[in-house]
């Protein structure tokens, strides 16, 4: 049995290096849209209000540059339908940013087709800014004959823009790898509306369908009909900003529909742009195996916490998710390489090791803080005051002034503890400064140094922050949705038994 895996890295590279041909049952991808916007990760504060802290998790702006040109030429040189589509796009669009976006997508779609099983399906999530181009690219990559649906995900949001209709939908392009008879597809049913039931009553409804969609004779219809067949316009609420782990987080019920319809228990689901892991959380809950890829350590950290938090609340024993993480630094030189390549990623990774949540540095109220950890240490968790640890992370040269600065931040923030994480060994002066800050005493009577210094080497060997510790005490990631029992999770739909392939 293939194990569940979280990969940190560029999905094109990961797919080429680790994923063998025709091994995946279902792919859902939600790439950054071509909406000319930089997404920032906004974290909700513990009291539920918006934090001003922002972190750039990924750029959603595409420019025609050397990388885009190289990607374009690679696809064109391969030949085939995708190459033809790209040549046509280039004639029409020239070298603009839409073209750069398509040049990024084209080689990935080729790889995704390669790894999909004969019975498999793919859902590409996009919005009307790019869906028309992407549909042509999907036709080229998967074959126009394998197009199944353009699903409209309709939601409500705050009104914006006076001179056009409110834009309230995303588009899901659903294709299969081969002809319709082969694909895994479990028919879903919508509940009958109150007015239909009132008008006909259940006894008078004669139009039932069996699992393969055939109309049943009226005699058997009443028993078999679980409602009307699910159509291609899905009304599902967005994740409210206050509950989001990630600004582009998708609702679990959207993924429940996709995964239930297009896979069976034990199947392998791939999300190559997995963000905060909505696909993974749902796949795990619905007893599918999964592979997630993301290019930020922040996403990988959020997913790990999401899985732990969700399953801490899951009643079924033995259901704790088992998975491995590939691509994270395993030793000091790996950590140094990451720090040299991208100091932000290094910070996110290091903070993930101590279960802290990153915040943007040097911004307003968060000046001097790279991460925070919130905890409860009183007997009654409902009445407990939320306490905090603030973090500063440095990958370069360090000195006693850094520890002194953090000590000032701890006092300013009225935090219980301050933790300084560094690559270099702490000097005697740094240790002395930290020691002079005294201790935090918990209501349980335990003592914990107010100022702590942790080197990356120590973190890699398993050392962690010293604070009043036990299961459930760290409430930093409590925004993660709790895993629910299957039936409650999606009340408006009924699920038939899975079809055999
Ligand atoms: C729109 S978000 C996905 C949100 C996700 N569906 C969820 O519910 O959380 C896109 C994600 O793709 C990631 N990403 C962008 N380019 C990538 C690449 N080349 N390889 C892997 N991940 C990438 C970003 O870091 C971001 O987390």
What class, by secondary structure content? alpha/beta
C-alpha end-to-end distance? 18 Å
Q: Judging by the overall fold, what is the CATH architecture of the largest domain?
A: 3-Layer(aba) Sandwich
Rg calculated over all Cα atoms:
25 Å
Task: Write up what this structure looks like.
- The protein has 501 residues and is α/β, with parallel strands linked by helices.
- The protein folds into 3 domains: 277 residues, 3-Layer(aba) Sandwich (Rossmann fold), CATH 3.40.50.150; 41 residues, no CATH class; 105 residues, 3-Layer(aba) Sandwich (Trna Endonuclease, Chain: A, domain 1).
- The chain is 33% helix and 22% strand.
- It has 16 helices and 21 strands.
- The strands form 5 sheets. The chain has a 9-stranded mixed β-sheet with strand order 10-6-7-5-2-11-12-1-13, sandwiched between helices.
- Helix 3 runs antiparallel to helix 5 and helix 8 packs across helix 9.
- The radius of gyration is 25 Å and the shape is globular.
- The protein starts with a strand and ends in a 7-residue tail after the last strand.
- The C terminus is likely disordered.
- The site of S-adenosylmethionine has 19 residues, from strand 4 and strand 12.
- The site of S-adenosylmethionine (SAM) has 19 residues, from strand 4 and strand 12.
